[in-house]
Amino acid sequence: EAGVVQSPRYKIIEKKQPVAFWCNPISGHNTLYWYLQNLGQGPELLIRYENEEAVDDSQLPKDRFSAERLKGVDSTLKIQPAELGDSAVYLCASSLGVGRSDTQYFGPGTRLTVL
Amino acid sequence: QKEVEQNSGPLSVPEGAIASLNCTYSDRGSQSFFWYRQYSGKSPELIMSIYSNGDKEDGRFTAQLNKASQYVSLLIRDSQPSDSATYLCALRMNRDDKIIFGKGTRLHILP
Predict the structure, then answer these.
(1) Is the minimum CB–CB distance between A71 and chain B shorter than 8 Å?
(2) Does B43 contact A48 at a Cβ distance shorter than 8 Å?
(3) Which among B45, B49, B88 is the nearest to A42, CB-wise?
(4) How far apart are CA B35 and CA B99, in angstroms?
């Protein structure tokens, strides 16, 4: 079974430029998560989708970040414009979304460097 | 108090010994707890989940949960150099189902 797929794996951009990350979850997984992870920190949730619906986007900086999950499968996270402080690893995870034993599976992440 | 607290380490343990990793949490209503392993430059990988008080064993790993004292721990027996990684404690918050991660504990197994 294929795992969570993310692209690109690495991205280097200059500040004020836009950037987009793509995620393809595990087949059949209804719940999709975008996390941000800074060095030495645990992942921090940006947004959680149940199918097409964003059920928790309270930590998403909406002035510059946006996300979508069309058709309840693939998802895209966008930053426009990027700032120096956005340099981090952006992780996508997916899960079946059922019950307390629901397990998240992480993709390899996209390492963003903003110059 | 932070929602999930871990000692950042590094924790150095001789090869073959038992590594003990601890985590405390603030949300008394949390029911689901997870331990993830993260190698440098890689994404987190689930190694254990625990939902009831007591111990849960899986191979060399044992997770321990004490809801009354609000802590969860992970024991690694017969530690191997390949166990050197950062171990992230996580829980599912009762109030909003959000999964919260600790900062992680860096474990270094000394050959």
Answers:
(1) no
(2) no
(3) B88
(4) 12
Whether A40 has its CB under 8 Å from any CB of chain B: the answer is yes
In sequence order, which residues have a C-beta less than 8 Å from that of residue B59 and are 6 or more positions away? none
Kindly give, in sequence order, each residue whose CB lies less than 8 Å from that of residue A98, ignoring residues fewer than 6 positions away: none
Residue A16 and residue A83: Cα distance in Å, rounded? Answer: 6
State residue A11's pLDDT score: 97
Segment B19-61, tens digit of pLDDT: 999 999 998 888 899 999 999 999 999 999 999 999 999 999 9
For residue A39, the distance in angstroms to the closest alpha carbon of chain B comes to: 10
Q: How far apart are CA A82 and CA B104, in angstroms?
A: 27
Q: Can you tell me the mean pLDDT for B60-74? A: 96
Q: Other C-beta atoms within 10 Å of A30: how many?
A: 17
Q: Does pLDDT of A33 surpass 80?
A: yes
Nearest Cα neighbor of A33 from A88, A75, A1, A64 is A75
CA distance A31 to A53: 9
Task: Please say whether the beta carbons of B31 and B92 come within 8 A.
Answer: yes
